[in-house]
Amino acid sequence: MIEVQLLAVQAIREVFAGANLTEVLRNIWQTGSHLTPQQRGAIQDIAYGVLRHYGQLDAILHKLLNKPVQDKQLHYLLAVALYQLRYSKAPAHAIVDHAVSSSRKITRNPAVSGLVNAVLRNFMRKRTSLPDQIRNDDIARYSYPQWWIDKLRQQYPQDYEAILLAGNEHPAMILRVNRLRTSVDHYQAMLDAQNIDSEWLWDTALRLSRPVAVEKLPGFSEGLVTVQDAGAQFAAPLLDVEAGMRVLDACAAPGGKSTHLAELAENIELTVLDKQEDRLARLKENFSRLKIAGYQLVCGDAMSPSHWWDGQLYDRILADVPCSASGVISRHPDIKWLRRPEDIDHFAQTQTAILNGLWPLLQRGGKLLYVTCSVFNEENDAVADKFLTTHEDASRLPCSHGMLGRGQLLPGSHHDGFFYALFRKN
Ligand SMILES: C[S@@+](CC[C@H](N)C(=O)[O-])C[C@H]1O[C@@H](n2cnc3c(N)ncnc32)[C@H](O)[C@@H]1O
């Protein structure tokens, strides 16, 4: 457990220094080829768990310590052990003993191991009363930065608490059944045969009762299913693509939504664009697993079509723009600590520039779907409203799916948070 704790500390420290958790863990796996699948699972669970509950763990630590620990590694080690004591099934004495041994790897100062032992044992004595003592502190209660809580409270006076808490849940694993290759009923029967429990949500979305490694999913390598959040599965149907249409997915990688477009209508002329070459490589893998061929792959900037556009207008455009990702916090708990308040306006500027860049490429009568996985109004309705005021030839269509309301899907137990705005060129 010592190596597990120390590698989890490394991951958390790198995230708080500005790195993305997925990449940090990828690097740890690369250098730690000796780690067993169980150890990897434990490191991942601890790193995600500590980031999910960091506001609360940090506040508890402050209550337990007379003065804050200066050494960051030691501070994160205490947070790791607190998380394990509070949320894992590992025996408490083993967690404490290993944390004491881990602290000796961090520093040779003998006083430190005594401190770690004392703090953790003190926590065990006070564990029932401590959470109540920090209830009035927003950051401790919700485990988000204060600016984030304030923004949601102001924008969603009724729903902010549910949104915050949904982001601290374990995310569901959702599949999209490839209806070109199978049916939902048939695929559910295949899952049943493997004792994988699933629930039908809507259209081709199936929710698994617990996550499964993709290699264990029947027919995954043959392209029968894709792992995709149920909220993300609204995008492609909203564009009502038909055979023969020219379709552009302008922010396409890794291809979750463009592969869905290709599954909904065969024989569309599909162009997939993305600015990042390495992400396009992942898109290619997904297209090839799903056996989708005949698409055009372009590496380019959606804001500057003159560099890559062939001059022929599109019937449909999907703009699944870069955003704060504030709607997908249950999958990426690092994001809430990495974002800064000023990032939100920067995203809104980029989003507006992408919309402005793409609009001239749309056929008259054509549709453009603007998508974010954000819950912040600045990136959603504010961008959509500004776009309408600056483009007289644009009108906003209702998003026909009942759940979407004004286009804002709030994160919940069945799906992440998304925003959809559908525009038609008049
Ligand atoms: C939200 S992700 C897209 C997810 C994708 N649509 C899917 O469903 O799998 C946004 C993508 O936009 C790309 N991107 C960011 N800025 C861009 C730009 N100016 N032009 C084109 N692509 C851009 C990023 O590289 C990233 O892959």
Walk me through the topology.
Blueprint: H1 2-16, H2 21-31, H3 37-52, H4 54-64, H5 72-87, H6 92-106, H7 110-126, H8 130-133, H9 138-142, H10 146-155, H11 160-167, E1 173-177, H12 184-193, E2 198-202, E3 205-208, E4 225-227, H13 235-238, E5 246-249, H14 256-264, E6 269-274, H15 277-289, E7 296-299, E8 314-320, H16 334-338, H17 341-358, E9 362-372, H18 381-390, E10 394-397, E11 408-409, E12 418-425
Parallel strand pairs: 5-6, 5-8, 6-7, 8-9
Antiparallel strand pairs: 1-3, 1-4, 2-3, 9-12, 10-12, 11-12
Helix pairs in contact: 1-2, 1-3, 1-5, 1-6, 3-5, 4-5, 5-6, 5-7, 6-7, 10-11, 17-18
Bound molecules: S-adenosylmethionine.
In N-to-C order, the SSE pattern is HHHHHHHHHHHEHEEEHEHEHEEHHEHEEE
Could you name the CATH topology of the largest domain? Rossmann fold
Oligomer: single chain
Largest sheet: 8 strands, mixed
Helix content: 40-55%
Basic shape: globular
Number of domains: 3
Number of continuous helical runs: 18
Distance between the termini: 62 Å
Low-confidence sequence ranges: none
Fraction in beta strands? 5-15%
Secondary-structure-derived class: alpha/beta
CATH architect. name of the largest domain: 3-Layer(aba) Sandwich
CATH superfamily of the largest domain: Vaccinia Virus protein VP39
How many E strands? Answer: 12
Radius of gyration: 24 Å
The first-level CATH class name of the largest domain: Alpha Beta
Taking all residues together, what is the mean pLDDT? Answer: 95
Ligand list: S-adenosylmethionine
Main location: cytoplasm
Function: Specifically methylates the cytosine at position 967 (m5C967) of 16S rRNA.
Keywords: Cytoplasm, Methyltransferase, RNA-binding, rRNA processing, S-adenosyl-L-methionine, Transferase
Organism: Nitrosomonas europaea (strain ATCC 19718 / CIP 103999 / KCTC 2705 / NBRC 14298)
